[in-house]
Write a structure and sequence with these properties.
The chain is an alpha/beta fold. It has 15 helices and 24 strands. A hairpin with a 3-residue loop joins strand 22 and strand 23. The protein is globular, with a radius of gyration of 23 Å. The structure holds malonyl-coenzyme A and adenosine monophosphate.
């Protein structure tokens, strides 16, 4: 049966004995083994009741079986829903209620907690960091042939939650066409082939580590050195055997801090790619000076996959994100009217193409707000195009902080702080951070007579929000700075509290 993504990314490797994933334990899973493993897991999903279009939630450590689980969802016609392993039970409850999955796969240590969140008609299976769990045991006993379920280009392949300015996370519905068209455009732009060996140190629950890194590798048949996380020592050990790396800017600033980073160390490397957050021109220049490599910066979003990229062969200009990918249109519009602006003027970046998602799960109003009838998606990023069409991102209309490539929406953090007894109001904002790009600060106003301490507030926030969203510093103020319209002036707070 035809299945758009499975047929393009996975089926061609049925008899491919080349290495696909090599983990930190040095064990390699070949492409052919991967295809067989995905089939075994597909049987487990179907035995658990998964039918066409059912959501499969995966909050799992980064293992080769976790990648096979993604492939198994494609093969069995399910919708893959990966979740950050740092999310708290409160955060997970929201996603599970909203997405109503048929199966939840989690780390063995979280089994009891997730069982309490699991809908009555769903079940929980486990997959631990040690590669063990009930999913593994069941897969080991299953057949390694599975009759692929038919799925077309418009069918959903993934549901990826992104936070929002309203504080509520939205599930971005990603179709087979969205993911395949983008993988093909990137393989072409970055000239990825089966001769490549990718250093993969990103998490696999977001677009960057999952779709950008893995779909392109699968499409090209490249080898992947699959690391549990970003550790400079491990990356430095792998650079001399590798050709390609994808990372957030923090990867590059941390590598630059290591004296072992030299041109010799990178002599087999073909390409370093950065995205998910702005790469400072000074980082780009310092990396070039140290290694002879110009980091290639690209720009994307969960809802759109990748949008623009600097060229592989032409000039990679520091501080810019390059040109739209093949098949993708970018326009810069007046944020107020939506009208296209003349070249050279700063405005809203809007995107159209086969890469753009079909809408937010269960949120038709929000979808209509952000996705025009013409097919253009309003990114919330502010940019400008030069005379050649090269895009630079100059700011964001959305109130968003990006720390180490993770998005933090201040409204969600403010809601968590304001819910604590004794807090009157709060304002959460980002200040520059040399390691993570930005860090989160909270200004809090207490109710009269409140005896709350900063430690109390931090503890209250920690019970509900993932660690990466929690403010690194709190300041207690008598009042928040406001303009004459009564709007909180975050620019004043940012200026007052920048390090
Ligand atoms: C970890 N911590 C973070 C953090 N990562 N806090 C804020 N922001 C982050 N990104 C917390 C840890 O819990 C820890 O808290 C403390 O910070 C120090 O941790 P660390 O050891 O320095 O962090 P580390 O584990 O090394 O992780 C840093 C990192 C990681 C940069 C390697 O965050 C990372 O892999 N980021 C990649 C994110 C990503 O893939 N984004 C793509 C989104 S898709 P404590 O309290 O224990 O000290 C997208 C679209 C697109 O944006 O265009 O790609
Ligand atoms: P996410 O919602 O996690 O997909 O994050 C998408 C956001 O990350 C975009 O809207 C941008 O604000 C930001 N982003 C991604 N790549 C870049 C980049 N190269 N430069 C600046 N910002 C980026």
């Amino acid at each position: 049966m035809a299945n758009t993504l499975y047929d393009a990314l996975i089926a061609p490797h049925r008899h491919n004995d080349a290495p696909f994933l090599t983990g930190d334990d040095g064990r390699t899973m070949s492409y052919a083994d991967f295809v067989r493993r995905a089939a075994q897991i597909a049987h487990v999903l179907v035995a658990a009741g998964v039918q066409l279009g059912d959501r499969v939630v995966a909050q799992v450590p980064k293992t080769t079986d976790a990648v096979a689980l993604y492939a198994a969802c494609l093969q069995s016609g399910a919708v893959y829903l990966p979740l950050n392993t740092g999310y708290t039970k409160a955060e997970l409850g929201y996603f599970i209620t909203d997405a109503a999955p048929r199966v939840i796969i989690c780390d063995s240590k979280d089994h009891a907690a997730l069982q309490t969140l699991c809908p009555a008609d769903a079940s929980v299976l486990t997959l631990g960091a040690d590669g063990q769990g009930s999913l593994v045991t069941a897969a080991d006993a299953a057949s390694d042939e599975f009759a692929t379920v038919a799925r077309g280009p418009d069918d959903l392949a993934g549901l990826l939650y992104t936070s929002g300015t309203t504080g509520r996370s939205k599930g971005a519905m990603m179709s087979h066409r969205n993911l395949l068209s983008n993988a093909a455009a990137l393989v072409d732009r970055w000239q990825i082939t089966a001769r490549d060996r990718l250093i993969h140190a990103l998490p696999i629950f977001h677009t960057h580590g999952l779709f950008v890194a893995l779909n392109t590798s699968l499409l090209a048949g490249a080898e992947v050195r699959f690391m549990a996380g970003f550790q400079p020592d491990a990356v430095i050990a792998e650079l001399p055997q590798s050709t390609l790396m994808m990372g957030v800017p923090t990867f590059y600033t941390r590598l630059l801090a290591d004296v072992r980073l030299t041109p010799d160390l990178c002599s087999t490397m073909r390409l370093f790619i950065s995205g998910s957050a702005p790469l400072l021109a000074e980082t780009h220049d310092a990396f070039h000076a140290r290694t002879g490599h110009k980091i290639l910066e690209r720009y994307g979003m969960t809802e759109t996959n990748m949008i623009t990229s600097n060229p592989y062969a032409g000039d990679r200009v520091a501080g810019t994100v390059g040109f739209p990918l093949t098949g993708t249109e970018v326009v810069i519009t007046d944020p107020a009217s939506g009208a296209p602006l003349p070249q050279g003027e700063i405005g809203m970046i809007e995107v159209r193409g086969p890469n753009v998602f079909s809408g937010y799960w269960n949120m038709p109003d929000k979808t209509r707000e952000d996705l025009r009838d013409t097919g253009f998606f309003i990114t919330g990023d502010l940019g400008v195009a030069d005379a050649e069409g090269r895009i630079s991102i100059v700011g964001r209309m959305k109130d968003l902080i990006i720390a180490g490539g993770y998005n933090i929406y201040p409204k969600e953090v403010e809601d968590a702080i304001n819910a604590i007894d004794g807090v009157l109001e709060s304002a959460v904002f980002g200040v520059p951070d040399p390691d993570l790009g930005e860090q989160v600060i909270a200004a809090v106003v207490l109710e009269g007579g409140s005896v709350l301490t900063v430690a109390d507030i931090a503890a209250g926030v920690a019970s509900g929000l993932a660690r990466f969203k929690q403010p690194r510093h709190y300041v207690v103020l008598d009042a928040l700075p406001r303009n004459t319209m009564g709007k909180v002036q975050k620019n004043v707070l940012r200026a007052d509290y920048r390090p």
